[in-house]
């Protein structure tokens, strides 16, 4: 450990050395026991600290939500790649990320548009509370298997969102 701290050896060299020893090597046993101390310390802290538990639960829920979102976008072929090359797989992943980002952007634009239409301070505070305690990673309003025709939208110059109004909006007292 001192060699690692002093930079005399690398972690890779230490791990190679430890792997070459037998399982009953005193250094390996000591490292396992030290790992148990760290793990036990964290478990006790986790048990005692409500804020830590809530923070970890929130992160785990967000990760699970992102995984479900990715599966919802990449629903075909049981989420299995039907292409062989790494380059083709990376293209598919990038397309999935583009779709996910487009959905999240639309959600943020929708929320922003809602904020521009607020008439009272109470309504503003209610919407802000919902935004603070939720996420824009929702997709249930999107027909994933639908076909979309944007030609009417482009031909009419009739955009769904008033971008200038959204840009001009500032969080302030409405009343």
- Count of helix runs: 8
Order of helices and strands: HHHHHHHH
- β-sheet strand percentage: under 5%
Unreliable spans are none
Largest sheet: none
Characterise this structure:
With 175 residues, the protein is mostly helical. It has a domain at 79-175. Helix content is 67%, strand content 0%. The protein contains 8 helices and no strands. It has helices at residues 2-6, 11-20, 26-48, 50-73, 86-116, 121-132, 151-156, 163-168. The chain is extended, with a radius of gyration of 26 Å. The model has no long low-confidence stretch (mean pLDDT 84).
Q: TL;DR?
A:
This protein has 175 residues and is mostly helical. It has a domain of 97 residues. 67% of the residues lie in helices and 0% in strands.
Question: Which key features would you list for this structure?
Answer:
mainly alpha, 175 residues, 8 helices, extended
Topology of helices and strands:
Elements (H helix, E strand, L loop, with lengths): L1 H5 L4 H10 L5 H23 L1 H24 L12 H31 L4 H12 L18 H6 L6 H6 L7
């Amino acid at each position: 450990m001192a060699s690692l701290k002093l930079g005399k050896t690398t972690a890779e060299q230490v791990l190679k050395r430890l792997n070459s020893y037998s399982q009953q090597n005193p250094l390996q046993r000591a490292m396992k026991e030290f790992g148990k101390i760290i793990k036990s310390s964290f478990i006790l802290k986790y048990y005692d600290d409500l804020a830590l538990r809530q923070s970890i639960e929130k992160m785990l829920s967000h990760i699970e939500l992102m995984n479900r979102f990715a599966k919802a976008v990449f629903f075909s072929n049981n989420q299995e790649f039907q292409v062989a090359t790494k380059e083709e797989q990376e293209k598919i992943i990038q397309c999935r990320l583009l779709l996910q980002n487009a959905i999240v952007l639309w959600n943020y634009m929708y929320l922003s548009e809602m904020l521009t239409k607020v008439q009272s301070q109470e309504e503003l505070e209610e919407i802000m509370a919902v935004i603070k305690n939720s996420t824009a990673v929702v997709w249930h309003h999107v027909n994933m298997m639908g076909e979309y025709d944007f030609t009417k939208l482009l031909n009419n110059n009739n955009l769904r969102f008033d971008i200038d109004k959204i840009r001009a909006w500032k969080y302030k007292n409405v009343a």
